[in-house]
Amino acid sequence: MSEKRAPRLPLFHQIRLFVRNEQVVLSVLAIVIGAAAGLAAVGFRHFIDMVQLFFYGFSGPNVSEGIMDLPWWQIVLVPVIGGGIVGVFIHYFLPDGKAQGVQHVIEGVALKGGRMSFRTGIRAAIASAFSIGVGASVGREGPVVHLGASLGSWLSKRLSLGYILSRTLLGCGVAAAVASSFNAPIAGVFFALEVVVGHYALSAFAPIVIASVVGTIISRIYYGDFPAFILPKAMSLGSFWEFPAFALLGVVSAVAAIAFMRSVIFAEDKIGQLKLPFWLQPMAGGLVLGLMALVFPQIIGVGYEATDAAISELYPLWLLLALIVVKTVATAISFGSGFSGGVFSPSLFIGAMVGGAYGIIATSFFPELSSGYGAYTLIGMGAVAGAVLGAPISTILMIFELTNDYALTIAVMIATSLATVITQQVHGRSFFMWQLERRGIEIRGGREASLMRGVTVVDMVQQDITTIAPDAGLAMVRQELRRTKLGQVFVVDEKGSLKGSISFIELAEGLEQQEESGETATALEIARRKPVFLVENANLEQALQLHGASGEVYVPVVNNAEDCVLKGVLHEHDVALAYKKALEQARAEERGES
Question: Which of 348, 349, 292 has its CA nearest to residue 320?
Fold first, then answer.
């Protein structure tokens, strides 16, 4: 007899199940987010042009060429006036009166369940576009990433999606933003996964790819199929004997990346010590930028014009070396004085100058083996940017998408990998991680920490406890201790407030003192007056830390630190079990499981 086959579902029902599938829904949402982030990137660039047109009288990417025709006083005053406006806007309209960036996106994913404020995202984009438009030496990709992430978070919040889907949609916004900025969809995907999402599970990978492609399509419809940087000629590897030179360029790039990041740290610390009013700090920074721009106009704005010139081998050695120093100082002053913007473009600028200068020197020694210093410029861009951002994979892929040359990409891989490793060993962190640590935010532990912070101890409190009045005698204490399973009783007053705890150790000491003195002791007199405790809205992470630090098996839980009304106790076994579940859930999500 033939086996009986299970009846096939009707076609309409199969379609219905398919449409309701989580991955199908997520893919549709990825298209929406990709299109929205791509349009947001276009709108962001338009807003920069509007600000630039208003203050400088021209728009477009060729800023250094345009300001050469302006009077000196306009070059100096525009960053000053614009800095004052930016300072006031950031102080009154952004959280804590501080600029927002990619570090806040990482924080949102790791610690806030993929939640970000859409209103803050819009305001941060306005502050960054205005900063770039008036001449701040910052990048435009970071703000677009923040804006794209805010769009993804807003949609997930509106649809009441869980953490896994929220994090994926946020990553979709990031990928589309990077892809539309550089016309590099592969780099967009891996930047989102490498820097923001933190894993490569298929459940996140597929929607992020879709969003990145859609963002790229939007950008190409509007701007055409052109890369972010113009290559004047096809570049390829001259000789495999150049690889030692590429490795050494990686070392040099690490030095440049570390110097750049520490310059920003130094500028922030020193300008912060001046205690200037919030509106005066960016004005002072703008004054320095304007004076520097009189000699080096290349530092104004994003700086892609100068980066293109270095790739095209148009700058002499002295200018490349000078621009390394000047751009580093200009960007440090911009961030330190309170302008808003990203670090991607400045790191590419500095990397281009480092690679170009290194290429000229290397070519002078071995001209017959050289690929041309334009190739070294591209390699330096990838190496410095990868080290600063802590994103070697996405920067390598971005350079590959610009050149389509496998041999040159291998050179970028060598230099970028070495630069990133050296930077991590010496500096200890990427630029974004450093910014978070400066704000006292610990990302290590990532998803596990986020899960633990989402579990409150009130759900694990044991209410089967024994309490005793402060004036109770020791005989009563001994009787209650024998009856309780916890091995301790808690002294509470008539309002239920915790006054102390008593175990057999405190009881024995109290009985001994009572025998020696002959005076009757009370429960409050022998109790530990300041027992460790948790408030009922404390999270699992805090409970784990307190159990570890105190060594207590049972920790009392109170309503708040002021009233200290006893609610119950928390056992270390329950904390350990909840922690194990949090780890298992985090691992499941990284494997793409729900």
Answer: 349
3-state SS, residue 464: coil
Look at 199 and 185; give whichever has higher pLDDT: 185
Please tell me whether residue 315 adopts helix, strand or coil conformation: coil
Are 435 and 101 in contact by the 8 Å Cβ rule? The answer is: yes
Distance CA 11, CA 22 (A): 19
Q: What are phi and psi of 538, to 5 degrees?
A: -65, 155
**Residue 486 in tokens:** 């916890």
pLDDT band at 201; cut points 50, 70, 90: low
Return the number of other C-beta atoms located less than 10 Å from residue 366's C-beta: 13
Buried b (16+ CB within 10 A) or exposed e, 384-398: bbbbbbbbbbbbbbb
Tens of pLDDT, residues 233-278: 666 666 677 888 889 999 999 999 999 999 999 998 888 888 888 8
For CA atoms 307, 310, 315, 321, the dihedral sign is positive
Integer angstrom CA distances of residue 333 from 90, 326, 337: 17, 11, 6
Over residues 323-338, the pLDDT tens digits come to 999 999 999 999 999 8
Tell me the C-alpha distance between 555 and 275, whole Å. Answer: 44
Q: Which two tokens stand for residue 115?
A: 């939640």
Tokens of 558: 């109170």
Question: Rounded to the nearest 10 degrees, what angle do helices 72-93 and 118-133 cross at?
Answer: 170
- Kindly state the tokens that stand for 12: 């309409």
HEC profile of 30-98: HHHHHHHHHHHHHHHHHHHHHHHHHHHCCCCCCHHHHHCCCCHHHHHHHHHHHHHHHHHHHHHHCHHHC
Pairing of strands 566-571, 467-468: unpaired
